[in-house]
């Protein structure tokens, strides 16, 4: 099975999706969203691999392998994706703190009213 | 009833994702490397950076980095605004 | 002082805080030569800063790391990154005017593996420093605001 790394990244996304759909605690929902983001980042980095390639950096690169480098563009896109995932998690956690302070509970089925 | 429908939809999406991951290009041979070969061959002559990933993030695709800096700024603004308390000397 | 940890944790935090800061600044400064850059180095330095509220308690850390100073430094880093994009506005936005020019950070780099010329890459080192400052102070702002805002709940 040659595509095993892609299947593992999709397994992470499926685990995060399961956590988002079937769990009730707010902190577990935040963990599920973070799992989905991790799976997508892993998938992006695995897309650009070239067999027996080295990192796309020319400082002290071994001269025998310097013409077989891994693709650099998916790594640049993953940088942006990681920072955006961090911003999402920070906002989700601060909303969880405020909801707990207002309702006294972290169960997502009890926080249903739209007016304070 | 609703829980069964949600579970069926989840199984369908999971099967779709796994089937799609198995049918991508083989791991280790990317399918269209023409743009990245141009970046690898010309980044030292045009930007002068040894680190090709940094040259892409800040020079060839600097606009994406500007968008990401804006997202980070908006997130910090949101977190600070959520925890702001009115002081006693306001209103 | 509540929230403080034991003597062993406090001593080790004092020693490793300085080492983590040095490593993080190295990763930021050499972003155009070695793996790293603004975002990665900024995250490392923010992890070093975040050791202090964990080991010494949020109240003691607030006297040493001011949250509003961190927020203003983050805005300075953001504006500096935007201003660096306008340097080459005669040709296009985000044009690298200092590369291959012979002046500050303008040495030309030959193709192929070499041992790293520090004086190269144009406006890229300046952008690394601006983004590093922004990420470092921004992440520390989030940590401090979450710790202090969530901890005062009992005093309402």
What would your notes on this structure say?
- The complex is a heterotrimer of chains A (116), B (91) and C (156).
- Chain A contains three helices and no strands.
- Chain A has one domain: Orthogonal Bundle (Helix Hairpins).
- Chain A is an all-alpha fold and 116 residues long.
- By secondary structure, chain B is an all-alpha fold.
- Chain B has one domain.
- Chain B is built from four helices and no strands.
- Chain C has 156 residues and is mainly alpha-helical.
- Chain C has one domain.
- Chain C is elongated.
- The model of chain C has no long low-confidence stretch (mean pLDDT 84).
- Chains in contact: A-B, A-C, B-C.
Q: Which whole number gives the mean pLDDT of chain C?
A: 84
Give the amount of beta strand of chain B, in percent: under 5%
Low confidence ranges of chain C:
none
Shape annotation of chain C: elongated
The SSE order of chain B reads HHHH
Derived from helix and strand composition plus strand pairing, the structural class of chain B reads mainly alpha
Total number of strands of chain B: 0
Range of helix content of chain C? 55-70%
Secondary structure: number of strands of chain C: 0
Give the fraction of residues assigned to helices of chain B. over 70%
* Multimer state: heterotrimer
Tally of helical segments of chain C: 5
What descriptors fit this protein?
heterotrimer; A: 116 residues; mainly alpha; Helix Hairpins; 3 helices; C: 156 residues
Please outline what is shown here.
Helices cover 70% and strands 0% of the residues of chain B. Chain B is an all-alpha fold. The two termini of chain C are 20 Å apart.
List the helices and strands and how they pair.
The complex is a heterotrimer of chains A (116), B (91) and C (156).
Chain A: H1 4-22, H2 26-47, H3 73-103
Helix pairs in contact in A: 1-2, 2-3
Chain B: H1 2-22, H2 34-46, H3 52-60, H4 62-82
Helix pairs in contact in B: 3-4
Chain C: H1 7-29, H2 38-56, H3 58-64, H4 67-85, H5 124-151
Helix pairs in contact in C: 1-2, 2-3, 2-5, 4-5
């Amino acid at each position: 099975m040659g595509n095993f790394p892609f299947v593992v990244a999709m397994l992470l996304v499926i685990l995060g999706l399961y956590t988002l759909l079937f769990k009730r605690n707010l902190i577990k929902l935040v963990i599920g969203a973070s799992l989905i983001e991790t799976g997508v980042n892993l998938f992006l980095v695995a897309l650009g691999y070239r067999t027996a390639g080295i990192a796309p950096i020319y400082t002290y690169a071994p001269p025998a392998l310097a013409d077989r480098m891994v693709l650099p563009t998916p790594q640049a896109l993953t940088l942006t994706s990681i920072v955006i995932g961090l911003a999402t998690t920070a906002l989700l956690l601060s909303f969880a703190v405020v909801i707990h302070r207002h309702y006294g509970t972290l169960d997502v089925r009890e926080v249903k009213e739209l007016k304070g | 009833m609703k829980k069964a429908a949600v579970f069926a939809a989840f199984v369908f999406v999971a099967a779709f994702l796994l089937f799609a991951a198995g049918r991508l290009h083989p791991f280790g041979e990317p399918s269209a490397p023409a743009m990245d070969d141009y970046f690898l061959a010309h980044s030292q002559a045009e930007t002068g950076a040894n680190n090709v990933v940094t040259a892409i993030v800040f020079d060839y695709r600097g606009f994406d980095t500007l968008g990401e800096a804006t997202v980070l700024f908006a997130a910090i603004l949101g977190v600070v605004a959520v925890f702001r308390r009115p002081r006693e000397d306001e209103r | 002082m509540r929230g403080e940890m034991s003597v062993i944790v406090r001593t080790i935090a004092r020693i490793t805080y300085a080492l983590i800061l040095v490593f993080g600044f190295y990763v930021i400064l050499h972003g155009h030569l070695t793996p790293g850059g603004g975002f990665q180095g900024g995250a490392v330095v923010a992890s070093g800063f975040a050791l202090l509220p964990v080991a010494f308690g949020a109240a003691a850390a607030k006297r040493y790391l001011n949250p509003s100073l961190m927020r203003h430094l983050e805005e300075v880093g953001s504006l500096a990154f935007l201003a660096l994009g306008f340097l080459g506005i005669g040709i296009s936005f985000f044009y690298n005017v200092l590369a291959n020019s012979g002046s500050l950070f303008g040495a030309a780099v030959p193709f192929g593996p070499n041992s790293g010329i520090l004086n190269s890459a144009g406006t890229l080192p300046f952008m690394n420093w601006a983004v590093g400052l922004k990420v470092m102070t921004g992440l520390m702002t989030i940590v401090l605001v979450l710790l202090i805002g969530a901890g005062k709940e009992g005093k309402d």
